[in-house]
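Input.
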Amino acid sequence: MTVDKKPLPQDLIDGLLANYQKPEDLIGEGGLLKQLTKALVERALQAEMAEHLGHGKHKPVGNATGNTRNGKSKKTLKGEFGELPIEVPRDRHGSFEPQLVPKHQTRWSGFDDKILSLYARGMTVREIQAHLTEMYGTEVSPTLISSVTDAVIEEVKAWQARPLDALYPIVYLDCIHVKARDSGAVRVKAVYLALGINLAGEKELLGIWIAQTEGAKFWLAVVTELKNRGVQDIFIACVDGLKGFPEAIETVYPKTAVQLCIVHMVRHSLNYVSWKLRNEVADDLKRIYQSATAEEAEGRLTEFETKWNATHAPIAQSWRRNWPRIIPFFDYPPEIRKVIYTTNAIESVNMSLRKITKNRGAFPSDEALLKLFYLALRNIAKKWTMPVRDWKAALTRFTIQFEERMPQG
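Output.
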């Protein structure tokens, strides 16, 4: 059934607004918009019924089965306008399937998206319930909210199992710690994220894993999953000192260089420094990682030790301890180094996730934790700039540096 789009007659609008005096007359609980929505919905349902039966109300039966109208049923629709009671026409054979408001539907299309949006921003079920009541005057049960968010789990499973690209020049791995209930006790869980930069320079979250135990066995399962989902090669894996990860990735991807994340090294170092000295220490650290060669960088580190060891010895000690995993950085030209350092989007992802989770207590389950992270990350990804900064220059250098491993064409 096609309806021609025509502008509303001015006299119709004037008639509807004849008694308008204040905003509540239009948008209030018993205002014109709500009355008009109810009238239009019910009128549309009557038109659908006429189409279904082949005849209008009080008209001769227009179908071979003798099917006719059989009164109405009542339902209440929930949405941004609050609660709207409507009457849905019925037929004697029970074969009428409304299109505008399908059977069993009690919420307007898009209302579930509102619930998911609030959940993705870190609001608890109770907070979402209070918000919907306050904003829209709509009573929504905690059970309903949970069922809406639970429906995301199948989407999460499909996303986590989706095929991936054959090659990611850079993959970042990091984790965020949160509390969740497990076997009746509250435990601190490590949620690991893998973020890849593909050949187009686009950031892509590859997966989310909740670690029950850490170490080589866990990481072997993670990188094996990436391999099974289609990832054949990774040039550089950028990590934050994850125990057991280098051994695991070298088992599955023996050609991959494991690079300790420079961003994390700098941030960890500055934890030992007062605000007054942070800029000076940061500048001296920059002289280390911006060196042209590993030899020059080690000389800069020695200079750093001479200047700061008396007051901030743990900083240089940390760099010395991790030096074998830092120096692969100097094997790459400036174009690649710049991307490795400045494109560490996973750190900004973690910052966004911490903002969302900081006001929450313990998650009731790993599944609840996974739902929130997936929805939050889906929102975060919408804000990413594509491709990453200076990617064209970096890709040219990747093509030269890893010529034999780059896909043809």
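The chain has a mean pLDDT of 82.
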